[in-house]
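Worked Example 4.2. Consider the chain below.
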Amino acid sequence: MTPDETARWSQRVTRESNALDLERGVFARTDPRAIAQSLKRSADMSRRRRAATPFASAMGMLNFYINRAGRNLPAGRRAVLEQAKEELRALYGRPRRQEPKGPGVP
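Applying the procedure from the previous section yields the following structure tokens:
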């Protein structure tokens, strides 16, 4: 698969996912809460969801986007998307992720 085909493949998955109908430009937003709210709306309304829960579907799509675009994302953009994960957890009432503790820290 050429780089062009790979780019088109991941772009097509994001646009035409069989799991969620995403709002146009959701990942281009600058507000992490707005990204999370849009993903939640899409996951809650989806009848074609493949994951067991709306939360898993929404988080899976966000992680897919971050992982596929990751090497090309500027640090600030990646930080917004990572914060959107925390916002998504909060919207679904999931516990916040624990910060990893360094060696020797209780």
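Residues 75-91 form the longest helix (17 residues). The two ends are 47 Å apart (CA to CA). Compare this with Example 4.1 before moving on.
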